[in-house]
């Protein structure tokens, strides 16, 4: 019994990986994703490896997961993969307060982000 199997949302030459709660603001994460959009998979991994940003390690993990999904689940050629999409969205925001002078408080917002990476197999130039 149960539900029938859902249709695949992506085309046959794409694979996807997501991270749902990254502790960084979407604006900062989008700057890093702009570096890897449209690049070949191995060049994007190299750029993330040597990036100075703290969140680069988590983005690299998501990209490696997308590459592994493409290879193992969808039988795509790893050498022809490139980053087709790297989209960022807002997740929850933790709200905290810091005591300030004269009995006042200063609000602090700690944002979280979502990251979706789609890798696509490049067509052969015949």
Question: Could you please describe the fold and organization of this structure?
Answer:
23% of the residues are buried. α2 (41-49) runs antiparallel to α3. The protein has 126 residues and is α+β, with helices and mostly antiparallel strands. The chain has three helices and three strands; from the N terminus they run βαααββ. It starts with 13 loop residues before the first strand and ends in a 5-residue tail after the last strand. Strands 1-3-2 form a three-stranded antiparallel sheet. β2 (81-99) and β3 form a beta hairpin. The longest helix is centred in the middle third of the chain and has 17 residues, at 56-72. The protein has one domain (14-121): Ribosomal protein L22/L17 (Ribosomal Protein L22, Chain A, Alpha-Beta Complex). It has helices spanning 26-36, 41-49, 56-72, and strands at 14-22, 81-99, 105-121.
Q: State Rg.
A: 19 Å
The number of strands is 3
Shape: flat
Low-confidence residue ranges: none
Main CATH class: Alpha Beta
Summarize the entry for a quick read.
With 126 residues, this protein is α+β, with helices and mostly antiparallel strands.
Per-chain topology:
Elements: E1 14-22, H1 26-36, H2 41-49, H3 56-72, E2 81-99, E3 105-121
Antiparallel strand pairs: 1-3, 2-3
Helix pairs in contact: 2-3
């Amino acid at each position: 019994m149960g539900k029938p199997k859902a249709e695949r949302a992506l085309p046959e030459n794409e694979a996807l990986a997501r991270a749902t709660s990254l502790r960084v603001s979407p604006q900062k994460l989008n700057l890093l994703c702009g570096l890897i959009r449209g690049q070949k998979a191995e060049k994007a991994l190299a750029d993330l490896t040597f990036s100075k940003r703290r969140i680069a390690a988590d983005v690299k993990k998501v990209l490696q997961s997308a590459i592994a999904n493409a290879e193992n689940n969808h039988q795509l050629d790893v050498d022809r993969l490139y980053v087709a999409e790297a989209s960022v969205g807002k997740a929850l925001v933790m709200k905290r307060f810091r005591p300030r002078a004269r009995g006042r408080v200063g609000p602090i917002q700690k944002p979280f982000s979502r990251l979706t990476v789609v890798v696509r197999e490049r067509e052969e130039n015949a």
